[in-house]
Automatic annotation (TrEMBL):
Family classification: Belongs to the STIG1 family.
Name this protein carries in UniProt: Stigma-specific STIG1-like protein 1
InterPro entries named in the record: Stig-like (IPR006969)
Signal in keyword set: yes
Annotated source species: Hordeum vulgare subsp. vulgare
Residues in the signal sequence: 1-18
Keyword set, alphabetical order: Signal
A Pfam entry, by short name: Stig1
Domain of life: Eukaryota
Length: 134
């Protein structure tokens, strides 16, 4: 019984040592040697280009159906929260300011938007905290 166990152990070790060098010579892909590719992505076999962006400028004025959106430079944008189109097309907020309700505000000191949009303070907003150090 002991000799059968030793023989089985030697067979397993010999098989494992033979597989390691054989696996070391494989490469991921001949076209992209450093890239690993998912088999899930290769199922279709063809690569499709990205879809073009929706161009609302070629449509009617109501092409952007969501409330608070407008057609700016051919794209529907949220003019209520977009930093680049705050309150209207191409009205960008200055550095350090955010767009809350279509207005550029400083979240660190605005009493009605303290730290986040619509976070109102009773007395004062300092460093984005209501009534800080009082």
């Amino acid at each position: 019984m002991a000799s059968a166990a030793v023989l089985l152990l030697i067979t397993v070790l010999a098989t494992a040592s033979a597989l390691v060098p054989a696996m070391a010579g494989t490469s991921p892909s001949p076209r992209h040697p450093a890239a690993r590719r998912s088999r899930f992505l290769l199922v279709g076999g063809t690569v499709h280009p990205p879809l073009p962006a929706y161009d609302c400028s070629k449509k009617s004025a109501g092409a952007c159906l969501a409330t608070g959106t407008a057609c700016c430079s051919g794209q529907c944008v949220d003019t209520v929260a977009s930093v680049h189109h705050c309150g209207g097309c191409d009205k960008a907020c200055k550095h350090g300011r955010m767009c809350c309700g279509g207005r550029c505000v400083d979240l660190l000191s605005d009493k009605k938007n303290c730290g986040a949009c619509s976070n109102q303070c009773n007395k004062k907003c300092s460093y984005g905290f209501c009534d800080y150090a009082q």
